Amino acid sequence: MKAGIYPIDPEKALDIFDTIARYGIVGVDVENAASIFDNMLDSNAEKLHYARRILDSGKIDRAVLVLREDGGVFIIKVENVVDIRITIRDALRLIKDFSLSQG
Q1: E strand segments, the chain
Q2: How far is the C-alpha of 97 from the C-alpha of 54, rounded, in Å?
Q3: Are 56 and 75 in contact (CB under 8 A)?
Q4: Which H or E run contains 79?
């Protein structure tokens, strides 16, 4: 697998987020500069639920998939305040399923 960055438009990012579990979630990290609540979440499921609430109430500024040798990291930046990072195992299948291309 060759490393690379795949830009994703906001609408497609929401579609990917809704189906991300099928690509083998390894870890979820949510950093909200305006809240400490994200530090109290323990499980990936709690973090995904919290991230979904943020996505429902905010505007996506940027979304990318960073391909690495051992999978990928799906990154969403919301209103320049929240960073959502979801590490997945099967990034190549996600790229194929959503017809992503390198930017």
Answers
A1: 4-7, 25-32, 60-68, 71-78, 82-88
A2: 25
A3: no
A4: none
Span 60-90, pLDDT tens digits: 999 999 998 879 999 999 998 999 999 999 9
CA distance 96 to 22: 13
73 by DSSP, 3-state: which? strand
- For the entire predicted model, the pTM comes to 0.91
Contact 30, 87 (CB under 8 A): no
Query: What would the DSSP string read from start to end of 9-28?
Result: -HHHHHHHHHHGGGG-EEEE
Instruction: Tokens 């590490």: give the residue.
Output: 87
- Assess contact for 77 and 60: CB atoms under 8 A: yes
C-alpha distances in Å from residue 99, one per residue of 4, 6, 7, 78: 15, 10, 11, 23
Q: What's the rounded Cα separation, in Å, for the pair 40 and 77? A: 20
CB 17 within 8 Å of CB 95: no
